[in-house]
């Protein structure tokens, strides 16, 4: 028995390999193994375990976590090892499962796919908390003129979710598309934004953050300026 998730396939003493998928929030798992032979003994990950008693918690990292259960027969010689591969989902895998019914980075669920035909890739919608089924480029944040103590500058205001801890979000600026983009502010793996262009980052509803990032160059100081938001993993 597992504290979270379900074995696949269902347990059969003749089958030695299993998988189980657990949510991102499951940082550990507890197992309660049982034996049909009361004189047999067992170990979990090499540690003695009492049949019928909870073993754990076993810490889980995001991704694959192999757990081995070795049963030693009453003769003290014969052994059999069962392996459970516990997959702890990442935030983006849970997002894919919710919206596309798969955790795989393939097909319409792939990071660079834009299945709605609006040209907005899944990864950008994920990073900026945009509905992936919204067939409308109007949902994208756009640069706007705002007045600051230093002068009038372009700025971007947008939303992020700290729970989405597997992406890097950058706000960048340039004066010419042929020139390199300069990073104004960055959020790494769900962390707070930082950088010379950060104006503020405040709490929004449901644990989200609203962010304002401005250019570091006044509009009057350059013939043209461009801002963009990039999301990468």
How would you sum up this structure, described in words?
With 233 residues, the chain is mostly beta strands. It folds into three domains: 73 residues, Immunoglobulin-like (Sandwich), CATH 2.60.40; 46 residues, no CATH class; 92 residues, Immunoglobulin-like (Sandwich), CATH 2.60.40. It is built from two helices and 14 strands, in the order E-E-E-E-E-E-E-H-H-E-E-E-E-E-E-E. The strands form four sheets. It has a five-stranded mixed β-sheet with strand order 1-7-6-3-4, with no helix packed on it. The protein has a four-stranded antiparallel β-sheet with strand order 8-9-13-12, with no helix packed on it. A three-stranded antiparallel β-sheet has the order 11-10-14. A hairpin with a 6-residue loop joins strand 6 and strand 7. The model has no long low-confidence stretch (mean pLDDT 93).
CATH fold type of the largest domain: Immunoglobulin-like
N to C succession of SSEs:
EEEEEEEHHEEEEEEE
Name of the CATH architecture of the largest domain: Sandwich
C-alpha Rg, in Å?
A: 25 Å
Structural class: mainly beta
Looking at the structure, what is the overall shape? elongated
CATH class call of the largest domain = Mainly Beta
Q: Report how far apart the termini are.
A: 35 Å
The share of residues in extended strands comes to: 35-45%
Biggest beta sheet summary: 5 strands, mixed
How are the strands of the largest sheet arranged?
1-7-6-3-4
**Percent helix:** under 10%
Low-confidence parts? none
